[in-house]
Amino acid sequence: MATNWQIGDRIQNRWEIHKILRGGMGVVYIVYDHEHHNAYAAKTFQDEVFARSPLIAQRFTHEALTWVNLDVHQNVTRAHLVQNIEGKPYLFLEFVSGGDLSSWIGAPRLTQDLTQVLRFAIHFCDGMTHALLKGIKAHRDIKPSNCLITHDATLKVTDFGLSKLFDDTSPEVETRDVQGLSMAMTRTGSAAGTPPYMAPEQFDDAKRVDVRADIYSFGVMMYEMLTGRLPFVGRSKEELKRLHKQEQPPSLRKDWPEMSGIVERCLAKEAKDRYVGFEAVRKELGRIYETLTGERAPEAVKGRDLGAVEWANKGNSLSNLEKNEEAMQCFDRALEINPGYENAWYNKGVLLARLGRVEEAMACYDRGLKINPRSEMAWNNKGSALAELGRVEEAIMSYDRALEINPRHGGGWFNKGYALTQRARYEEAITCLDRALEINHRLGDAWIIKGDALHELGRVEESITCYDHALEISPRRAQVWINKGARLGELAQYEEAIACFDRGIEIDPGFETAWNNKGFALGKLGRAEEGIACYDRALEINPKFDMTWNNKGNVLGELGRLQEAVACYDRALKINPLFVDAWINKGARLDELGRFEDAMACYDRALGINPQSPNAWYNKGVALGRFGQDEKAMECFDRALEINPRYAEAWFNKAAALANSGRRAEALACFEQANRLGLPQAALIIAQLRQALGQR
Fold first, then answer.
1. Which end of the chain is least crowded, N or C, by CB within 10 Å?
2. Given this model, what pLDDT does residue 696 score?
3. Does 389 reside within a domain?
4. Which residue range forms the structural domain that includes residue 683?
5. Is the dihedral of CA 575, 578, 583, 585 positive or negative?
6. How far is C-alpha 67 from the chain's CA centre?
7. pLDDT score at 168
């Protein structure tokens, strides 16, 4: 999840970072969108905040959904879309480059210009009226830094995060400013907001306040616009609480007689004595404006209807928040307005595919491609749908069409690479994945799939390097830690493997594969009892994990607890009767118990499932040899060696059977082959046989 982006980087090869603003909890990237040719403020929490609590993302999406649902109004900072990037949600907001209202406070352009104060106040009332009509119950954090100002001096209300968090009974939050874009953060207690601006009742219970608390905060902000100072200044939250509850602010009657009545009513201690809504405040502000200027007050601004592009963007955001039904309605509205809008067809297809309605998704991609046959995104996603249907070769052809149109389409290279791994074309897959990583070095999934492909080619150390790259990008991906641990285990680096499994378990304690693999590594280190405890933990999580029953049986067998081992294999085989290794292992334990016929039946069951299992042939040969049936044993070893000529143990046991049959010269050749393949115990026997045969 780590996102160590710098100015100049491109997020997902699309949003170029021009500025980074960090606060106590949050970060805002000012970016240029090379796809839509627009500037945005991309808002999220800092990595360490998400790492601390998985609930942060959920709270953030509540905030994002509130904002997206406000739609379009010139006095509300617009939320364009929500995008999940490398495991974190990002809210892409309209970029307002003129700063915020706090930079105007105390300046003559406000304190000496009542008309400008009135314009900003009217803008604010229009923005809040729109937000309240769209379902916001209360903003709860009105202050100058939450009012952005455009270059043409239009005020836009921003940061509706607290309202949704409280409406959904989420934990209390406070805000830290990030240069005009404040970030919600959790805290204890029942009060929330920014104390110098909070209504008296908000100090006691922020969850139950309504619009009249916002009216009070607006009164504080108007007082500050007029005078350049706050009505109440305290050194602590408790002092501010007392002042807001008990003291009256310094009067405005002398310097601002026109405004004093409005501000005083907004700042009434009792909510019932304030204005009931922003429309009523605006009406009085408009009357003063007309008296002061001799002109009609600005007309109340209404939110406009969304166009096709805006409905589609809203659908994308809702889809990213998994509000699937609402998202589908948005895409359908976009297509009602403009049936020729290819992006709406494409995005509707993406949502349908995610819902498992792949055939319908294909139809949407095809509609989009009729409109624009050169849409690489549509070809790419059609490929994904074809792959989902098992039509992998057709999928690869679709990815090729996308890449013909745009050779820099990183997603197309990644998808083609992944499809090629499904056809075991690993070298070609790695080439494609490398192309994807050239375009976007932070594509974590590409590093993972490349690591898997390298492992299949036997390039284990290189695969570990790929997993390390993936973990630099997203260190909380449990599956990648498990993959890395498994590869380290293959290199017999069991301590390092266990450390990886522990990281995976720390991230996801319910990940049964991590417990299983840790148990296996502990067994290899001779820590059998600890290994069994890990297997038991895996089986608590998933009692139908056949591999774990098999592995537990192996450890019990090594400890000489043969009956318990057989019982474990039986559990595995009840879950999966076609589990070849479990049949082989059960046979080996039965053989140790002296139950030759039962053991042979197990090996025959394994070979009935997979006649090409060298282990089944080998173990059957060992059992036959133990009972003096050397000729039959040799036939089994020969079958194992036909399948795997590098099976050192099979060469060794074949040699032993030949020696028992008096065929010493042939036995010597087999022992020598076992020794060449890394079985050192063959060396002593080779020397003895050579001496017996008169060889040097």
1. C
2. 56
3. no
4. 636-696
5. negative
6. 21
7. 41
Question: In angstroms, rounded to a whole number, what is the distance separating the alpha carbons of residues 276 and 129?
Answer: 12
CATH number of the domain residue 75 falls in: 3.30.200.20
**What is the 3-state secondary structure of 309-351?**
HHHHHHHHHHHHCCCHHHHHHHHHHHHHHCCCCHHHHHHHHHH
The CA distance from 328 to 320, in Å, is 12
β-strand partners of 175: 184
The total of other beta-carbon atoms located within 10 Å of residue 583's CB is 28
Inter-residue contact 51 to 476 (CB < 8 Å): yes
Which residue type does 159 have? D
Six token digits for residue 247: 């003291």
550 secondary structure, DSSP code:
H
pLDDT tens per residue across span 504-554: 999 999 999 999 999 999 999 999 999 999 999 999 999 999 999 999 999
Q: Does 328 fall in a domain?
A: no
Instruction: For residues 207 and 67, state if they share a domain.
Output: no
- 552 with 688, same domain: the answer is no
What are φ and ψ of residue 84, in 5° steps?
-90, 120
Asked if residue 288 and residue 141 are part of one domain, the reply reads yes
What's at 587, amino acid-wise? G
Domain boundary among 97, 116, 146: 97
**Same domain as 156, residue 255:** yes
Domain shared by 53 and 148, yes or no: no
Is pTM beyond 0.90? Reply is: no
**Burial of 295 (C-beta count, 10 Å sphere; 0-12/13-18/19+):** exposed
Helix (H, G, I), strand (E, B) or coil at 406: coil
In the chain, how many domains are there? 4
* pLDDT tens digits, one per residue of 418-451: 999 999 999 999 999 999 999 888 889 999 999 9
Q: Averaged over 180-200, what is the pLDDT? A: 60
pLDDT tier, 165 (very low <50, low <70, confident <90, very high otherwise): very low
Distance CA 201, CA 244 (A): 9
Answer whether 91's CB lies under 8 Å from 43's CB: yes
Q: Please name the residues in contact with 320: beta carbons below 8 A apart, sequence gap of 6 or more.
A: 81, 82, 83, 84, 89
| Residue 374 dihedral angles phi and psi, to the nearest 5° | -110, 30
Where residue 575 sits, what CATH number does that domain have? Answer: 1.25.40.10
Task: Please report, for the domain that includes residue 153, its CATH number.
Answer: 1.10.510.10
Tokens representing 663 are 């065929």
CA angle at residue 379 from 378 to 380, to 5 degrees? 90
> Would you say 671 and 685 are in contact if contact means Cβ atoms under 8 Å apart?
yes
User: Is 430 inside any structural domain?
Assistant: no
Q: Among 97, 132, 159, which residue terminates a domain?
A: 97
Condensed to tens digits (0 to 9), the pLDDT of residues 301-356 reads 777 777 887 788 778 777 766 778 988 998 999 999 999 988 899 989 999 999 99
* Residue 471 placed within a domain: no
Same domain, 113 and 51: no
Tell me, yes or no, whether 133 and 83 share the same domain: no
Residues 73 and 139 reside in one and the same domain: no
Q: Find tokens 């009545």 and name the residue.
A: 261
Beta-bridge partner residues of 185:
174
Which tokens in the block code for residue 547?
């591999």
- How many degrees, rounded to 5, is the angle at CA 485 between CA 482 and CA 486? 85
What is the C-alpha radius of gyration for the chain, rounded to an integer number of angstroms?
35
Please give the Cα distance from 433 to 227 (Å, whole number): 61
